[in-house]
Design goal:
alpha+beta; about 160 residues; four-stranded antiparallel β-sheet
């Protein structure tokens, strides 16, 4: 038996046969007396067995037309070009984390929340004022501070 189950063609034929039996039993519903009768009928004449299957009727289009005829009020329509409100809320409240610092060609760069930054860059409402081997000097609307590697800094919420 193992020799047959290791043959991909034999397994494919078994799988197709099982799918045909399952589909026929499902489509026939409670009309069939036994699964063995369904197998015998499908194997005897697969074309006639597949032709006897009912065809699904097309779905009515009235529901789509009804949905399109009643548009949302302007207050509920989101702006597709504006930022999502959840992204804004997450961005304002998420702390900034400095993961790494390195110097390359005389410039000090850092990875702040997964983005490579240098002096003069902005991350949300925070500006990177200075980058040195000690950390990044950050500034927002309310305060200014130095962020060392591994530390977190929460920007002020407007």
């Amino acid at each position: 038996m193992r020799k047959y189950l290791n043959n991909p063609w034999f397994v494919a034929v078994l799988a197709v046969s099982a799918l045909a039996v399952a589909a026929h039993a499902f489509m026939a519903g409670a009309d069939q007396a036994s699964p063995a009768a369904a197998v015998a009928e499908t194997v005897a004449d697969p074309v006639a067995a597949s032709a006897a299957l009912p065809v699904a009727a097309p779905a009515p289009q009235a529901t789509v037309e009804a949905a399109l005829s009643a548009p949302l009020p302007a207050s509920q329509v989101p702006d597709p070009f504006g930022p999502s409100t959840s992204a804004l809320a997450e961005h304002k409240s998420a702390p900034l984390r400095l993961a790494a610092l390195w110097t390359e060609n005389g410039r000090t760069l850092g990875i702040l929340n997964g983005k490579i930054v240098q002096a003069g860059d902005r991350v949300g409402t925070v500006t990177v004022v200075e980058a040195s081997s000690n950390g990044l000097v950050l500034e927002d609307d309310e305060r200014r501070g130095t962020l060392a590697v591994g530390d977190a800094w929460t920007p002020a919420v407007r």
